[in-house]
Amino acid sequence: MNEQQQQKQRQQGRDLEDQESFHRKSFGAARSEEGEQIHMPTPPQQQEVDEKTSQQKQQQQARKNLRAGAEWRQVEAETPLAPALPNLGQEVAAAAFCRPTLQPTGNSPHAPSKSHATHSRIQHPSSNSTASLAAPHSTDSDETDELRYRLESVTLSSHAPGSSSSNRHKPDPDTNTDTVTQKSLQTTISTGPSGPAVPSLHTSRTGHSHAPRSHSGDPPPYSNPCAQEPWAHTDTAAGSSGDLISQSFFSSSSEAALPPPPNIVDRDYIRTFASGTPSPTSSGSETPTGRSHPYSQRPRRTAPRLSIRSAVNAYNTAMAMEKSRKFSTGTSVHRKRQMSTLAEKEGHFGPSLTTLFLGISAVFADDHTAVVALAIHDTVYLVDFSVKHIVLDDAMRMGADLIADYIIEEVEKYEHENFAKFVGAGLPTTLKYMSPTLCSRLWLELDIVPIVLRPDDEHKERSFWDVKRVDEQADSMARKCIMNFGPSLVPILQVGWRGVVQTDCGFRAHLTTVQNHKDTVNNSTWETMMTFAKKLRQKKTKIAFFSSTPQGGGVALMRHALVRFSRLMGVDLTWYVPKPRPGVFHITKNIHNILQGVSHPDQRVSAEEKQAVIDWITENANRYWFSEGGPLRPPEEGGADIVIIDDPQMPGLIPLIKKVTPYRPVLYRSHIQIRSDLVAKPGTPQADIWDFLWSNIQYADMFISHPIPIFVPHNVPRDKVVYLPATTDWLDGLNKKLNKWDSGYYGNIYNIACHSQRMTELNWPARKYIIQVARFDPSKGIPTVIDSYAEFRRRWESAGMPDPPQLVICGNGSVDDPDASLIYDQTMSQLETYYPDLVKDVSVMRLDPNDQLINTLLANAHVVLQLSTREGFEVKVSEALHAGRPVIVTNTGGIPLQVKDKVNGFLVAPGDWKAVATHLMELFTDDDLWKRMSHAASTGVSDEVGTVGNALAWYYLASKWHEVGVERHGKGGLKGNERWVNDMAREEAGYPYQPHENRLPRHFTENKKVPVHPRPVEPEEPKEVTEPQATPAETEAEA
């Protein structure tokens, strides 16, 4: 056959191809109406054309390359940046540095049939080993491509440097198919009117670029087919969605139907050559006109599949061509002047900042360049965005995180220039591994909640993530981030199935790192905690906590912190709450008040009310926790190994658990002050309530109390008793250090809330203020706070001093706290009735949950009060000390354990308002005294009251109980004998406390002068009782 005949036959073949759908040209697989792939034989003429031109086309395409840097080049045996990123995830490391090559296997280059199982292998250029990544082929292109191309399985450790890169093109030993080399990617230059020439990717069977053809049913020229067709999607079923490279390479799609417009790189085209499968928009059986073509069943050639490395380089090239762009919006000169004037006149809390959300995304353009995009959203739409190319070079080898450095600097700069406050930032899972410190720095330095999201939103549904540019990805992250915040711009608390408390926006908010927590404690505390965490992981011990409410009180705060920390440490710890029933919470609150001795002397809980509490617990237990898969099923059926019950609302669970699993350890944690002296007196309301509770608690294997012996009723066996203080988290919103900008934002929120309720606003820093942060509870001593402030103001004015400090009384509500409204009304009545002249200087607020708001108010106060009449531990005292605030507190409950009298604060008797006024005058008139106490407060807090110290105690108890088991026939069990859990754990791990360490005083539990077992005594002659001092309010009332 001469050359002229060959050209004629090639032209006939091209004419036939032009009559078919453009999307079917490059593929040999068609689909039936049911979606099954069909193999069609190749016509003889077409086979001959293919054979004659195959070698020529390969030679032509071998000389072509991607102009923008995706050249087919030899990979160095040792990748320069790989050793510098030990913390990168597998998918990031593999995609960014390993440069894997896809090696399709099978007996045919055509698409496999439904029943034909093929596998793909990814082989590192410097290694002879391969990692099988694929599952059997499926007609579902989503699942097939995700399973086939997932890069997660490739780890840096499996690649030995120094191997020859020629291994990439060796035949697969399992098949007769050679590894595919670079095919038919050609770079042409599209020059647009609005920008420089940008590589535009097209295909041609002959190796030459061709003009686009528009057919009926295809998108119009230069339109975005992905914006019109709902088929572009990303599979999520296979697991991780955080691949560094856009998943467009690993999901099925077609060859680009039309060339891209100027300055737009066609990712769909790159996707086609990475997958080698037809587009979901192409049925493969009809022509563009909708008529069946006579040659529709003829054999088709399959476009050669590029290696993963080629697709990666092509996509990175596209990202690299994304121009750098700076933020374009800015605040007007008038607004800047107005905000500055407002700050000067109304104080630091005056200016109102614009609330915004941030979206972040990034990809590696090449081995030493990252492309980072920031998208700014209000609650409605995109406001602005930027794109930046960051050259990494050797910085990452030195442990620097240049991506995080750039983002932190850029975001802070934007906030200050535009008088804005970013509340949350959404970022894809891959970015967390690309920039290991970004999340924690956003949280700790800029007070931005980082929401780490799967690009596909964790659902098996179609999305456009795989075809988006990096700036579009950032925009998507910002939109999804907003959905994790409630109306008050606080992250949404989620309680899942079976009452599982999903802290931190369903575990999406990644606030801290392990290193952050390690920096909050000394080495002995950390090593002790790690000892028992390791044991729990090795034994796969499951721990389950049960408490009454997921937010509002100190117990909830401790559990939030413990769950968050345990997830970082890999400890299987889950927290459950029952489905709420408001009527029951009123009963449990009465129980709480009676045990503390702050209720009316005649108040009691009826038998019907006690039964209502038991029925509530039993219903939740049977419905959620004892059902199949529940946490209270036996451990061999997947239930928890160790169960901890919190407070007096939940003891009804204990006998139910013991009935099903009598040898599973159950620990009871008491968080409140119990008037054991009144409990020991028969016939008292306290004795009645305790008898009801003890009938259930007695089956627990351990009784864990605050470290005050008198809190433990007389009938609790002392060998079951251990002591554990309440704790707080130094890295959460309540305690982390806020900068001036963020403090101003939250202070303004407080003043706006005050203004809406016609309450006194704060004028800080022009005027200092005194604060008590506590729930509106009868035991918190709020009347004493007001009386003390009134006496202080009288002395201040008598001394002729200007600008008297203001008073703030505030706290959050709780689901199980129905008395809050009553106590609030009593507080306002006391002010308005007895001290109307002070109303304008006193701010009394019930606040919505907002940790940073409480943090701002506490950290900027001059003095912090805690004048409780009854108290368990009240960790707010330690939080105030940690912030460097001198405190004036009552000598009750566990408060004295935290305060060194006249060193970091003052201890007063409950109700002694005159002593409080005296100490207030001292702290406001003696600056040296205030500074000494402030320094002692900030440096004297023990590790025992932090999250790591709390985790240490619980990990020890869980590990030890799992090891020794419940006592049976005199063997097993863990004897408490009124010891501190932290002491037991430190000694067990080989790190006993040293004299120089800060720790809570032990003499409160060693001093037995306080009767632990009160006994009835013979009546004595009445003694003269000293009348307590009348308060100014009482004196005026009597007059």
Secondary-structure-based class equals alpha/beta
**How many strands appear in the DSSP assignment?**
27
- According to CATH, the fold-level topology of the domain at 523-559 and 569-726 and 969-1014 is Rossmann fold
Can you say what the CATH homologous superfamily of the domain at 523-559 and 569-726 and 969-1014 is? Glycogen Phosphorylase B
Distance between the termini: 126 Å
State the share of residues found in helices, binned by percent: 25-40%
- The strand line-up of the biggest sheet is 16-15-17-18-19-20-27
Fraction in beta strands: 5-15%
**Radius of gyration over all CA atoms, rounded:** 35 Å
Q: Helix segment count?
A: 32
CATH domain class name of the domain at 523-559 and 569-726 and 969-1014: Alpha Beta
User: How does the overall form come out from the CA principal axes?
Assistant: globular
Major sheet, described briefly? 7 strands, parallel
**CATH 2nd-level architecture of the domain at 523-559 and 569-726 and 969-1014:** 3-Layer(aba) Sandwich
Mean pLDDT: 74
Low-confidence stretches: 20-44, 65-306, 1009-1030, 1032-1039
Which terms would index this structure?
alpha/beta, 32 helices, six-stranded parallel sheet, Rossmann fold, Trehalose_Metab_GTase, 1039 residues, glycosyltransferase, glucose metabolism, 13% strand, 36% helix, carbohydrate metabolism, TreT_GT1, Nucleotidyltransferase, domain 5, seven-stranded parallel sheet
